[in-house]
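A brief tutorial aside. Many learners find it easier to grasp structure tokens once they have seen a single protein encoded end to end. The record that follows does exactly this for GNAT family N-acetyltransferase. Read the sequence first, then the structure, and try to relate runs of similar tokens to stretches of the chain.
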Amino acid sequence: MNLLQDATPHSPINHKIERIEEFDLTADQDKAIADLIGRIFNADMGGRSFAQNRHHRRYIIALEGVLVAHLAICFRAIRLGDDLVDAIGIAEVVVDKPFRRQGMARALLEAAIADGVHSLSEFALLFGTERLYRNAGFENAGNPIKLTNMLGAATGETTIGPNSAFMVKPLGSRGWDHSAEVDLMGFSF
């Protein structure tokens, strides 16, 4: 496990962020994440620590041994029009209610983006509408999106269409093509 300290120099509180590769996630960590997500999200995830499929990396904040904040990323190739590009998909951003407005979600997001910048990823992608994302430099993409819908943890239909919650942030010098179809080449994140 890698402990990232002072991941958010602009945050009023210094949060210690633990980065956990999915393969290294323990059963206790997995259950704590599932419990936190289950308390906060209004979606039945069947007690899982993920909505549709396992992620590649988790970012967590624990206070006195209790998990209070979580963010997951997927690292994958997608199609942006005819181009195959690498991207990180950000998912399951959650902060327990008593700990909100302390900069934890922003700290997790900044840590994930910093790791994305140092990877092969050209873009960070997410589905969300929170001001937090716009403040971090994400913008609504507006692209038609091709993806395989998941029904819980089972494969559903593949669809193509707009999604007003789809947001993008370039991680390098390449600009985003807002007119190109985006093929997630599978399920969302």
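Self-check: The radius of gyration is 16 Å. If you spotted this yourself, you are ready for the next section.
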